[in-house]
Amino acid sequence: MRFISNYFQFEENNTDFKTEIIGALTTFLTMAYALFVIPEVLSQVGMPKESVFVATALAAASGTFIMGAFAKFPMVLAPGMGLNAFFAFGVCIGMDIPWEMALSGVLASGIIFIIISVTGIREMVIKAIPNHLKYAVTAGIGLFIAFIGLKNAGIVIADEATFVALGNLIDKSVLLSIFGLAVMSILMVKGVKTAIFLGIVCTVGAGMIFGIVEIPTAIISMPPSVAPTFGVAVKHLKDIFNPEMMMVVFTFLFMDFFDTAGTLVAVGSKVGLLKEDGSVKNGSKALLADSLATCVGAVFGTTNTTSCMESLSGISVGAKTGFSSVVVGVLFIVSLFFSPLLSVITSQVTAPALVIVGSLLCSSLSEIDWNSAENAIPSFFILILMPLTYSIGEGIAFGFLAYVILMMFKGKRKEVHPVMYGLGVLFAFYFMM
């Protein structure tokens, strides 16, 4: 116990075992929904739900443990909701790419992430992309996720005349999703940190009562086999060397990279790890842990594993060191024995969670300078085109290309970073192809 206290510097950080463990439990309960939402979403593209559940838990456990023990950072990792949605609906369904090949794209992005984490390229890339575009990407992903959630709930449906329309709100499955959305929203307003998790529990309970969700035959069992997805990404790495897949890899990398960087700064500022120059103490180690987790997750069979904003829930109740992350990693391992609960997590149950997560990501809209046309127009393109083209990557490409063109006509060529010019050429080539 003394070794742990000294290693994680409990005294220097004014914390103790009880506080760290309470923080870990709070964080785990706040983000436990991902263990069930991720497999449900990926099952819609043919991936075996049980195997993805195991892969998700193992990726989250290994990444979080590395983050805590190696980087000594109070941050947890799990497959990201935005990345998961892009994988399923943008790549597999939207681009008609088999999940096996898409999984190899995740692995490739993780390998590249490792390289840029240890070479210092990450700082150059972060500085190259204007902040308003980063905020627009975050909010655009939020709109995209929310749109998928509304569609899965049946609240928004397809229509030949208007493309989309309001669904049948008195259908019992739609009502179940509306109920879940209402419960989560109310709990969020009340400041309940486990709002999404508790909302899913309440939605499942209501679904069972009204016969919409089947009652599980068991709660605890031995973990399912991960064999159906294990190693698939490695086998298909040779298939990613084409323009279409390279764009997918870049988008995975972009989303993971900036999602992690943003979370890192947010968490670091809350626990006093943010330096005067804007960098984060142990930030390089944290980024390396994140990239390693993505590679581990891809090999097991899940989407990009990234740092989660839910980490702030544990920090809000006192967690300050990497020990809390180590505890969360252990809890992810324990969760492997609760796979029977997957049978009750249907698309109607997870849809409200997607909508709520999407709404939270839209908070970055306030950071965009809407009074400047050269900022507002590219940001708007990113925001509107992500959901309307059903593609995060194409929204990013259109917005970034528009930014480069408008800045040139504005007479601000010198203010555009060379990296952005390179991306502009790349995206122009992508659209022509």
What does this structure look like?
This protein is mainly alpha-helical. Helix 3 packs across helix 4 (49-69), helix 8 runs antiparallel to helix 18 (392-410) and helix 18 (392-410) crosses helix 19. A two-stranded antiparallel ribbon has the order 1-4. A two-stranded antiparallel ribbon has the order 2-3. It has 2 domains: 7-253 and 264-361, no CATH class; 371-433. 66% of the residues lie in helices and 3% in strands. It is built from 19 helices and 4 strands. Strand 2 (156-159) and strand 3 form a beta hairpin.
Give the structure's gist in a few sentences.
It contains 19 helices and four strands.
How would the blueprint of this fold be written?
Blueprint (H helix, E strand, L loop, with lengths): L1 H6 L9 H15 L2 H10 L5 H21 L7 E3 L1 H13 L5 H21 L1 H8 L2 H23 L2 E4 L3 E4 L5 H18 L5 H15 L22 H4 L7 H28 L12 H18 L4 E3 L3 H6 L5 H14 L11 H15 L11 H16 L3 H19 L7 H15 L1
Antiparallel strand pairs: 1-4, 2-3
